[in-house]
Design a protein that fits this description.
It contains three helices and two strands; from the N terminus they run E-H-E-H-H. The protein is α+β, with helices and mostly antiparallel strands and 95 residues long. The protein has one domain. A two-stranded parallel ribbon has the order 1-2.
């Protein structure tokens, strides 16, 4: 495993173009063309910069958007939709 020297965390960077109330399954196809293109460009830019700065740089993104692009799918480590970010077993142990 590579040594990570820097981490950048984004919380819903697509929110301006992809409001959660429109979210059904993360599919950006429901967005108007200009918003869909903006979300695509945003994630593509983050991906390209992350690749340029790797292996010492890690980008973590929590977002509703789920692009239908191979490069995007390859970058997804976990899909938390419906599961929550805190595992239920941790909650059970705390009670």
């Amino acid at each position: 495993m590579a040594n990570i020297n820097a981490v950048l965390f984004f919380d819903q960077p697509s929110q301006a173009h992809y409001p959660a109330e429109q979210d059904r399954n993360g599919d950006v196809e429901v967005l108007p063309d200009e918003d869909r293109e903006a979300v695509y460009k945003l994630f593509k830019f983050i991906s390209e910069v992350g690749q340029e700065l790797s292996p010492g740089f890690q980008v973590i993104i929590a977002d509703h958007a789920d692009l239908r692009e191979a490069w995007f799918a390859d970058a997804v480590v976990a899909r938390w939709r419906g599961m929550g970010l805190i595992p239920q077993s941790w909650i059970d142990r705390a009670e």
